[in-house]
Design goal:
162 residues; two-stranded antiparallel sheet; 5 strands; 40% helix
């Protein structure tokens, strides 16, 4: 899968998960689903696997084309339904500014999400935003019952800056 950053003339690093770490992440996801009385079906598991392997934001159509490996691509509704489930269960986030999805490796339910996004290589790092409590309080003061807070910050990662 191609990165979401622009062509910048140097080698890009892979922040994805593979091997035993990937198997452990998928096993943990299955356990979380089971505990929540949900099912991590084969399509949901495959989409989560692709997101974890990428380690950076991936567009839905890239997921559709790589879903079947060497076989035919998935039908778009299959991938979009899987992404919807993964978002609702806290396994993935949608990066609005990139129109892409990234695996969430935090276990806290309903946590606020903040992303540091490298505009060169596409690497994305999820951090816990300290400002989320202030945003939720301000929303409540304005009469809003906020259900999600997502912050996106763009720049260059340390590897691309050097």
């Amino acid at each position: 899968m191609a990165h979401t950053g622009s062509a910048c003339g140097h080698d890009h690093h892979n922040h994805g998960v593979a091997g035993a770490a990937l198997a452990a992440e998928l096993h943990a996801a299955e356990a979380r689903c089971s505990a929540a009385d949900q099912r991590l079906t084969a399509p949901r598991r495959r989409v989560l696997e692709l997101l974890l392997q990428a380690g950076q934001p991936v567009k839905a159509y890239d997921l559709i084309s790589t879903f079947g490996g060497d076989g035919p691509p998935a039908k778009p509704p299959t991938v979009y339904r899987a992404l919807d489930f993964l978002e609702k269960q806290g396994f993935a986030h949608r990066i609005e500014s990139l129109n892409a999805y990234v695996a969430c490796r935090k276990e806290a339910d309903g946590h606020a999400a903040a992303f540091l996004i490298c505009d060169c290589c596409g690497a994305t790092r999820e951090i816990e935003p300290k400002a989320s409590a202030e945003i939720i309080s301000a929303g409540a003061a304005a009469g809003y019952a906020l259900t999600a807070v997502t912050i996106e910050a763009h720049g260059l990662c340390a590897d691309c800056r050097s």
